[in-house]
Amino acid sequence: MAQSNHKESLQEKFDSTFQHILSELTSRTADPGTTEALNHFRSVLEENVPHGKKNRGLSVAETYKLLMKHPHIPEENDLQAVILGWCVEMLQAFFLVADDIMDQSHTRRGKPCWFRNKGVGLMAINDAFYLENAIYALIKAHFDGLPCYVKILELFHEVTLQTITGQCLDMVFSRPDEPVDFTKYTRENYDAIVKFKTAYYSFYLPVALAMYLAGIYETDSHQRAKAILLEMGHFFQVQDDYLDCYGAPEVIGKIGTDIQDKKCSWLIVQALERGTPEHRKILETNYGIDKPECISRIKQVYEDLGMREVFLQYEEESAFRITELIEQLCGDLPQSIFLAFFQKIFKRQK
After folding, report:
1. How far apart are CA 51 and CA 17, in angstroms?
2. Residue ranges per domain, the chain?
3. CA distances (Å), 296 to each of 90, 256, 257, 291, 310, in order?
C-alpha cells in the first residue's frame, strides 16, 4: 500500500509540475513583440505534451529515486528529475508531431493529429522545432553549472540524432511514391529501424538521464543499462506493430496505418519469412495500397499464418530473455529499475 501511495504522489507531483513548466516557457520574454508566438506555443505545449501515458517521463523520476536509495531526497533534486522527465515527454511530442505529418496520419491519442487542427496545418513543422528547442531552454534554466549539465545536453543531442536516423530508415524503406520492395523488409533492417527510432529515446534515455543526475557517469554502467534497455525497446516496438493491426482504435488512441503506409513492420517481416509463394503474391499485390479490400487481404494472410499466436510466443520468449539480461547485467544498478520499466509494458493493450 505504501508503494502505491508513493507512486500516486509521484504521479501527482509530475502532473502538477507541467503547469509550472508551461508558465516558465511561455511567460519569460524580454520582447513584447513575441506575445502572439508565445500564445501559440502555449497551445502547442498544452495539446501535444501532457496527454500521453507519460511512462517515459515518469521513468526518469522513478529511476532517480531508486538510484538514490534514500527515502528523503532533497526537494530540489526531486524536482530536477521531474523536469528532466518532462523534457523527455517534450522530445516525444516533437517526434510525434513530425512523424504524423510525414505519415499523413489522421488521429493521435484519440484526437486529430496536431497538423490537422484548424489554423495549424504545416505550421506544425515549426511547432515541432519549438518543442525540441524548448527542451534546451528548460535544461539551461535548471541544470546550467551542475556536474551533469554537459552530459545531459550531449545525451539529448545524441539520442535525437539516433531517433532521426531511425525515422529516416523507416521512411526510405516505405517511400510513398515507389513500389513496395520486399527485399528491404528483412529482420536486419527492421532491427535497425527499431533500435534507432524507438529504443534509444523511449528506454535508454530516461534511465541514462536519471543515472547522470544521480552522479553515475561510468561508461561500463551505462553500457550495461543500454544493453538491457535496447532489448526492451525492441520488444516495445514489436508490441506497437502488433497493436497497429490488432489493437482497438478506441483503446490505442489511433487508427493503425502500417499496412497502407508500407511500413517495414514486425508483422510483414514475419509474414514474408513464414508465408508460401501464394501468400507472398497476395502481399506483393496488396501491401501499401490504401483501399479497404487490400488491407483486408493483408490481414487475412496474417490470420492464415497465425500471427496472433506467433506474437504471443514472441512475447513470452522476450520476457524470459529480458529477465535473464537484467539478472546478468545489472551489477551495482538496482534490478528494480529495469523490472519496473518492463512491468509497465508487458502485456500492454495500448
Report:
1. 14
2. 1-144, 147-350
3. 36, 13, 12, 9, 19
DSSP letter at 346 equals T
Contact 222, 211 (CB under 8 A): yes
Provide the annotated active-site residues: 53, 94, 99, 103, 108, 170, 197, 236, 240-241
Contact 234, 197 (CB under 8 A): no
Query: Which listed CATH number (3.30.230.10, 1.10.10.10, 1.10.600.10, 3.30.70.1290) goes with 1-144?
Result: 1.10.600.10
Helix, strand, or coil here: 286? Answer: helix
Gap between the Cα atoms of 323 and 31, Å rounded = 53
CATH architecture of 147-350: Orthogonal Bundle (1.10)
Sign of CA dihedral 228, 147, 149, 67: positive
Beta bridge partners of residue 152, listed in sequence order: none
pLDDT bucket at 259, cuts 50 / 70 / 90: very high
195-216, pLDDT tens digit by residue?
999 999 999 999 999 999 999 9
Q: What is the dihedral of CA 176, 179, 180, 183, to 10 degrees?
A: -130
Contact between residue 245 and residue 302 where contact means Cβ atoms under 8 Å apart: yes
Spatial distance between the Cα atoms of 72 and 236, rounded to a whole number of angstroms: 33
